[in-house]
Structures are given as structure tokens and as C-alpha cells.
Amino acid sequence: MKNQEIIFRKGSKVILRPLQESDIPLFQKWMNNPKVTHFLANVFPITFIDEKNWYESNSKSTKDRVILAIVDRKTKKLIGTMGMHNIDYISGVATTGSVIGDERYWGKGYGTEAKMLLLELAFNELNLRKLYSEVIVYNERSLAFSNKCGYKEEARLKDHHYKSGQYHDQVILSVFRSDWQDVWEKYSSENKIKIR
Ligand SMILES: CC(C)(COP(=O)(O)OP(=O)(O)OC[C@H]1O[C@@H](n2cnc3c(N)ncnc32)[C@H](O)[C@@H]1OP(=O)(O)O)[C@@H](O)C(=O)NCCC(=O)NCCS
């Protein structure tokens, strides 16, 4: 069976599946692309070995993170990656991060759907309570897609990131399960998403 046929979660636009070794070259390509890294903390070049090491540590089974590949459901093409990190089951919190590396897919709803599927897993299966995310203030697309998924601004770290010759604030956004539930009901019914 082709790995692309492995389906962990399916939406109307995307499939989320576990990482696979053949993802490494595209991940490396994206993580060196300044159009992508402009929105991330990454600054240094990423070698194949760096990416392979990242893959090897993040593809091992563990309960303190969930990292998935985002695949375009129609073309079966790998378009990005999304995950939950530092899962704390005592407090019920985790941090989330997302990259759609193929910029032709930006702003078309793929990120929103992938994040919705990840939040459904976090809240309805892992019994988490609150997820948070860190966004550089000029990343309006990321702020917009987070808001669509129910995240709200919780704090700002002043002049936290030095990017493109200037300091920029970091916005910390969070979403509580109680606030997300209605957003999910509406989103899943409008987009005819049925998980189970
Ligand atoms: C951030 C990211 C994951 C969002 O995924 P996406 O598929 O592009 O987002 P969506 O299309 O689902 O939602 C984006 C929303 O922002 C809006 N948007 C797009 N460009 C925008 C812009 N320049 N300013 C403000 N809003 C914008 C879109 O219209 C959309 O809202 P709408 O559906 O109500 O119209 C993706 O763009 C990405 O990976 N970018 C590069 C890396 C990155 O920024 N990662 C996140 C780091 S915190």
C-alpha cells in the first residue's frame, strides 16, 4: 500500500497522516525557503541531515507530541505539516504549530481544516483543555486562520523576534475546548466532515 493512502484524519480538503521518510526532501526545501521562514523562528540553513534528524526524532511514537503530514486530499500531494507539542496531560495544555510549505496552497482553507482536525483530536480524544500558539505579529494569515479555529489573543511578548532587520512582537493565542466546541459544530457541519 502506498503511504499516501494512510489516513489518520480526513476532511473535505486535506488528509492528515503520520510522517514518512520520503517527506524529508520537501520539508527541507520548505524550511530553507525565505518566503516560508519569514513566518517562522528558523534563520539558519537546514541541511538534509538536520531535516533527517528532525524527522527521526519527530516520527518516533511518544505521548507528548503529535506531528502529522498535511496532504491535499484531491491530488494526494504533501503540502505541509502540523503538530501539537509539549503535551501536558496534568494541566491539559499543549502548543500547536503549522506550516503549509507549498505556498500555492496558502489562503485557500487548507490550514484551517487541518487545524480543525488537529483540535478535534486534542479535545475529543486526548482530553486536552487548552491549546496555544505563538505567531509573529505580521503573520496576518496565521492570525486569521487561528481566529477562524477559535483561538483568541492572550498575550504579547514585546519586540520578541528579530526578523528582516527589525524587532517584532510575538502574539500568544489560545483556544479553550469550551470555546472551540461551537466553532467545530458549525465548521464540521458546513464542510460535511465526519470523523468516525
Ligand atoms: C499559516 C498557515 C498555516 C495558514 O494556513 P492557510 O491554509 O494559508 O490558511 P487558511 O486559508 O485556512 O486561512 C487563512 C485566512 O487568512 C486570510 N488571509 C489570507 N491572506 C491574508 C493576509 N495577507 N492577511 C490577512 N488575512 C489573510 C484568508 O482569507 C483566510 O481567511 P478566510 O478563509 O476567512 O478568507 C499557512 O498560510 C502557512 O503555513 N504559512 C507559512 C508558514 C506559517 O506562517 N506558519 C505559521 C507560523 S505561526
Count of DSSP helices? 6
Number of strands: 8
The spatial strand order of the largest sheet comes to 1-2-3-4-5-6-8-7
Question: What would you report as the Rg, rounded to the nearest angstrom?
Answer: 16 Å
CATH architecture: 3-Layer(aba) Sandwich
| Bound ligands, each once | coenzyme A
Strand content: 25-35%
The whole-number mean of residue pLDDT values reads 96
Structural class, by secondary structure, is alpha+beta
Considering the protein shown, what is the CATH homologous superfamily? Gcn5-related N-acetyltransferase (GNAT)
What would your notes on this structure say?
The protein is α+β, with helices and mostly antiparallel strands and 196 residues long. It has one domain: Gcn5-related N-acetyltransferase (GNAT) (Aminopeptidase), CATH 3.40.630.30. 32% of the residues lie in helices and 32% in strands. The protein contains six helices and eight strands. It has helices at residues 24-32, 34-37, 48-58, 110-124, 140-148, 177-190; strands at residues 9-10, 14-18, 66-72, 78-88, 93-100, 130-136, 152-163, 166-176. It has an eight-stranded mixed sheet. β5 (93-100), α4 (110-124) and β6 form a beta-alpha-beta unit. α1 crosses α3 (48-58) and α4 crosses α6. The longest helix has 15 residues, at 110-124. The radius of gyration is 16 Å and the shape is globular. The mean pLDDT is 96. Bound molecules: coenzyme A (COA). The site of coenzyme A has 22 residues, from β5, α4 and α5.
